[in-house]
Backbone:
């Protein structure tokens, strides 16, 4: 018999017992009720009639006719309510005596009527007593029956309560114990099959699963060890430094390159808290600083480069931090499980970059002198001091001068780039008002607004705190942003300059907004890279792709940030921040 049938039969039996006890109790109550009603309807009524007859006899002395009528009425009713043995004879005797009294009223006859009435009352009173005792005996008997039935039902229910739950959970206990052993990789603790019910079926299926798990573990252990050794070999033979830190900031993995750079054996790094290692190792402390940087603030395009001394010369390693996110099936959500730090040797690329920077600096300086001389000569030719020039020659000279000016601007930007890369750029920090910088840039840019009939909307609150900035470099950035806005704004459009205190009160934010075509999302970060130009429907090709890159470097070197917010067809908003003085 399976477990479901056992539980069903137990509940049905308990239900039948409950119904039986209820039905027998109702039957006993109805039986006692009928007995009590018979006593009240029969004997008690006869006693009441006897009392009326006695009162009629008492009244017959004062008013014989009325008393006699009441007596006869009560006797007639009693004759119709004869229920006890001998009661009919008493009624007949009363009827005969009443007839004699009516013919010849005498005291002796009245006394006989009274005696016979008392006899009738006594007969019914005895019957009442007898029937009450019988009812009491019946009630006691029914009470015993009900008590016995309740006891039987209680014992049966108690038997089911003790046996059915135990039968239901005993198999679960065995299954739980076997699962615990399997969790501890002990697949030998099978479940004994002791029945053919549901637990027996589960036990046989679970035992088959244990056998398959044991076979699977045996067959795949060698493969897992081979894969582990292969992965360890790959990690250990990487030419990059690799560290793995878990969510509790403990070092889980370090390869030989990273251990060599940290000048610590791997055994002293594994399992150690990252904060503890950072207190005694400068390089690890620098790596931890990059690890602590929020993911949203980590540079996306160019990771930081560390300069280390190795074998008597400088080597360069690029640091990359990647957070590891894993899906937790138990909680049904993604969780942070650790971070991977990599140190990539970029010394060769750094040398090439330095060679490129040196070449740019040399060429820029070499080009600037002849370009300046050409520009001066063009001015002399346009002024006519060296001879007359006709209109066509003037037009040619203007074109040459415009292209020469563009070359001078490009050379100047290349010189700025080389200075930024070499770290030789000089910043003159001083407290200054943002309003003064904005006003100077606005005055300078006025002539460039006229060809397109553009207007400049400036809103800079006077109560803004002073900022710590290089006035010349910051003005250059603002002019560059305004020039870009003029270039891409429609005719008779408007440019906006706003300034406000940034959230937190530690920086002032300045924005330049235009109503041009906007910048697609995929280009909004690329425009800050060097020599990058986005597709332009207007056909403009005058820029070098260096302005925004230099502007970001200038703002970053002053402790601020420069970024863009734009949507296609809705214009662009360039924002930069400067620290409060």
Residues:
């Amino acid at each position: 018999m399976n477990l479901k049938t056992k539980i069903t039969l137990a509940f049905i039996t308990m239900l039948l017992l409950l119904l039986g006890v209820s039905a027998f109790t109702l039957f006993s109550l109805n039986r006692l009720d009928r007995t009590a009603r018979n006593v009240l309807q029969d004997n008690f009524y006869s006693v009441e009639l006897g009392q009326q007859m006695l009162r009629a006899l008492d009244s017959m002395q004062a008013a014989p006719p009325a008393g006699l009528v009441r007596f006869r009425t009560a006797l007639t009713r009693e004759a119709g309510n004869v229920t006890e043995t001998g009661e009919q004879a008493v009624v007949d005797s009363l009827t005969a005596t009443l007839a004699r009294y009516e013919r010849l009223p005498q005291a002796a006859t009245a006394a006989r009527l009274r005696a016979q009435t008392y006899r009738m009352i006594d007969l019914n009173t005895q019957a009442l007593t007898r029937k009450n005792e019988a009812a009491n005996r019946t009630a006691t008997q029914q009470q015993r029956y009900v008590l016995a039935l309740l006891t039987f039902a209680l014992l049966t229910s108690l038997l089911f309560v003790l046996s059915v739950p135990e039968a239901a959970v005993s198999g679960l206990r065995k299954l739980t114990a076997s699962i615990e052993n399997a969790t501890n990789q002990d697949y030998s603790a099978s479940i004994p099959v002791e029945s053919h019910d549901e637990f027996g079926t589960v036990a046989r299926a679970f035992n088959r699963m244990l056998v398959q798990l044991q076979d699977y573990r045996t067959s795949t252990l060698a493969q897992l060890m081979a894969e582990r050794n292969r992965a360890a070999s790959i990690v250990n033979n990487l030419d990059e430094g690799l560290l793995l830190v878990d969510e509790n900031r403990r070092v889980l993995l370090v390869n030989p390159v990273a251990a060599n750079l940290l000048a610590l054996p791997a055994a002293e790094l594994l399992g150690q808290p990252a904060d503890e290692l950072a207190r005694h190792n400068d390089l690890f402390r620098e790596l931890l600083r990059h690890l602590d940087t929020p993911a949203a603030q980590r540079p996306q395009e160019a990771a930081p480069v560390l300069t280390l001394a190795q074998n008597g010369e400088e080597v360069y390693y690029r640091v990359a931090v990647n957070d590891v996110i894993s899906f937790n099936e138990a909680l049904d959500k993604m969780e942070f499980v650790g971070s991977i730090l990599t140190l990539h040797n970029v010394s060769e690329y750094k040398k090439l970059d330095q060679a490129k920077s040196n070449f740019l600096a040399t060429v820029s300086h070499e080009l600037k002198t002849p370009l300046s001389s050409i520009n001066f000569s063009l001015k002399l030719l346009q002024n006519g001091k060296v001879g007359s020039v006709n209109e066509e020659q003037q037009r040619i000279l203007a074109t040459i001068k415009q292209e020469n000016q563009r070359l001078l601007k490009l050379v100047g930007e290349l010189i700025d780039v080389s200075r930024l890369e070499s770290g030789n750029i000089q910043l003159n920090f001083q407290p200054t008002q943002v309003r003064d910088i904005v006003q100077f840039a606005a005055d300078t840019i006025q002539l460039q607004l006229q060809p397109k009939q553009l207007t400049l909307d400036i809103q800079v609150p006077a109560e803004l705190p002073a900022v710590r900035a290089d006035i010349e470099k910051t003005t250059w950035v603002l002019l560059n942003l305004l020039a870009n806005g003029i270039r891409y704004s429609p005719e008779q459009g408007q440019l906006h300059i706003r300034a406000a205190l940034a959230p937190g009160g530690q920086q002032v934010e300045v924005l330049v907004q235009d109503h041009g075509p906007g910048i697609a999302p995929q280009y909004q970060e690329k425009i800050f890279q060097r020599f990058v130009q986005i597709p332009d429907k207007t056909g403009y090709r005058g820029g070098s792709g260096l302005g925004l890159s230099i502007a970001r470097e200038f703002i970053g070197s002053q402790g601020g940030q420069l970024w863009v917010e734009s949507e296609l067809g809705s214009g662009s908003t360039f924002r930069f921040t400067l620290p409060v003085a």
In short: DSSP finds 15 helices and twelve strands in the chain. The chain has a mean pLDDT of 78.
